[in-house]
Amino acid sequence: MGMQDQFKDKAEQLKQQAKKKMGDAHEQTRERSSQRRGRNPQEPEREQREAQERFDQDYDA
User: How far is the C-alpha of 60 from the C-alpha of 44, rounded, in Å?
Assistant: First the structure.
């Protein structure tokens, strides 16, 4: 096996690894978005309100 073949094989391996990582990342994104859809619709508002309250408390002191 020549050097050119080795480089081609390595490039193919890296290409396959990249495809797998992209697929895995895509799956994780899908899972996270489906989990968010399952949340209470008022939860983001509550989280934002709580964050604002913490912010206000920090500057009131």
Answer: 24
Distance, in Å, from the CA atom of 16 to the CA atom of 21, rounded to the nearest integer, reads: 9
Place of tokens 């390595």: 10
Both structure tokens of 17: 């690894």
pTM to 2 decimal places: 0.44
Distance from C-alpha of 28 to C-alpha of 21, rounded to nearest angstrom: 11
Checking if the pLDDT of 34 tops 80, the result is: no
Terminal Cα distance for the chain, rounded: 72
C-alpha 11/C-alpha 4 separation (Å) is: 11
